[in-house]
Amino acid sequence: MKAKKFLSEFKNTKATNNFLRFLVVALITTIVAEGIIMLNLMDKQRVIVVPINVDRKFSITGDTASPEYVEMMIRQTIYLKENFTPETVRENFKAFLSLIAPQYYRQVEKKLMNTANELIKYQISQVFFPKEVFVKGNTATVTGIKKIYAGEHLAEQKPVKIKISFKINQGKFEVLKYEEVAYNTNRSSNNG
Are the CB atoms for 93 and 118 separated by under 8 Å? Predict the structure, then answer.
């Protein structure tokens, strides 16, 4: 009788252990699946941001952004790089550097800070008036008028075309390339 009772309890214990093992495996599988789903949803989450100084909504989803956001960041990039006085050039360039993609930061920083030192030494100020912003893919073309002052005197005024290559990296706007290119005023700026 004791043997039958022992075998019966053993079978019950074994069945209970098997059920508990199944339950643990099912819970682990569910937790792993939830984690994978949550990671995928993080890249697809859409956030609508409306800061005080922006007059329209924009959104960023993973590594893409709405055209409004891209245009706002292009205008901010242009402002920081092209508008300065001897007193503000270092701060503007430092803020501009915060938009540079990490892999290009060091080489751009060295060049910009050397340029800033020269601009301060010769008391150069500059202002850029953007006329058009044209974005195609991950490249923006901005046309406008650049005025350069030496002290208080206008040294140069010219039409300018600036090309900016960029990417959206985990919601952050990053400048890959920034260059002033030849500008023919007889052509339409929509040609890129």
Answer: no
Give me the tens of pLDDT residue by residue for the chain, a chain 192 residues long.
Answer: 677 777 778 788 888 898 999 999 999 999 999 988 888 877 766 665 555 566 667 777 777 888 888 888 999 999 999 999 999 999 999 999 999 999 999 999 999 999 999 999 999 999 999 999 999 999 999 999 999 999 899 999 999 999 999 999 887 899 999 999 877 766 544 444
Task: Give me the residue label for tokens 């020269």.
Answer: 118
**Of 189, 171, 163, which is closest to residue 61 (Cα–Cα)?**
171
Q: Return the HEC string of the chain.
A: CHHHHHHHHHHHHHHHHHHHHHHHHHHHHHHHHHHHHHHHHHHHCEEEECCCCCCCCEEEECCEECHHHHHHHHHHHHHHHHCECCCCHHHHHHHHHCCECHHHHHHHHHHHHHHHHHHHHCCEEEEEEEEEEEEECCEEEEEEEEEEEECCEEEEEEEEEEEEEEEEECCEEEEEEEEEECCCCCCCHHHC
